[in-house]
Amino acid sequence: MLAVAGDSAAGKRTLTAGLVAALGPDRCASFSADDYQRFDRAERRGLTVTSVHPDSNYVDVLEQHLQLLATGQPVLKPVYDHSVGRRSRPELFEPREFVIVHGVLPLYTRLSRACFDVAVYLDPAEDVRRSWKVRRDIAVRGYTAEQVDAAWEADEGTSAQVIRPQRSHADIVVRFATITGRDDPPGTQLSAEVLLRPTVSQPDLTQVLQPAVTGTAHLRLTRDTDGRPVDSLHVHGYASREENAIAEKLLWEALGDPNVQVPDALGDTGCGTRSTPLAITQMILLHHLLRGSR
């Protein structure tokens, strides 16, 4: 059981889709915790809470379903169509060998957190997340730019009080962003910082990530937000294609199956481009899924 939590438009679906495709739908199934909406888009008009607030979601039902899935039992889960803002017919969800749950609230309650073997929090830079949200909500969900801006401002209170605190409960924190001080050309991939907290057994990458071996990624010991030491993996978006290929091969041999090529689905941004920082992040999560974390 893997949780992928994060604020609206943090990249949860993109990260999850690559993992499911790499493992195969016969072994891995995923769903959005955001399907547990209490109100549709029309019903929310005039309410004081937004769609990402716990009061707008059936959090208790999500808890029950996570407990059932953690013991290998199927659930009849709700379905919410974000493209039109309405609830759809519930569907039977049967767990596979691996279950990934992504959304804004999967780590909100103690009971929900207890159901997961590994928990990830996506924490992209706010300017990056905002650009992703504008692009998605206009192209996929039918919002105007003005409506996206209004929703962003309305969600800020809930984000600060409810969503972002889930970061402290994650075993892995991933931040996609540009690198301050660099003047990279347009189209340069975002870099990634991956915090590998000692709350689960993390892979040992110290021998692989040596400066003489690869310039795409490096590992350093830093301080977490609570002041405790934590391993921080940096994957540079500006590295050359050749450097990226070497880094991916080295990390895949260390984390995955050296007899199998890097799955094509890893690193797919869903926008017609490929990202090595995303691919390496997904490799780490695959390592946890395939080998266990506890």
TrEMBL record:
It catalyses: D-ribulose 5-phosphate + ATP = D-ribulose 1,5-bisphosphate + ADP + H(+). SUPFAM superfamilies: P-loop containing nucleoside triphosphate hydrolases. The keyword Transport does not apply. Keywords: ATP-binding, Calvin cycle, Kinase, Nucleotide-binding, Photosynthesis, Transferase. InterPro entries: P-loop_NTPase (IPR027417), PRK (IPR006082), PRK/URK (IPR006083). Residues 2-175 form the Phosphoribulokinase/uridine kinase domain. GO terms for biological process: reductive pentose-phosphate cycle. PROSITE patterns: PHOSPHORIBULOKINASE (PS00567). It comes from the Bacteria. GO terms for molecular function: ATP binding; phosphoribulokinase activity. Pathway: Carbohydrate biosynthesis; Calvin cycle. Its EC number is 2.7.1.19. Belongs to the phosphoribulokinase family. This is Phosphoribulokinase. It comes from Mycolicibacterium cosmeticum. The gene is prk.
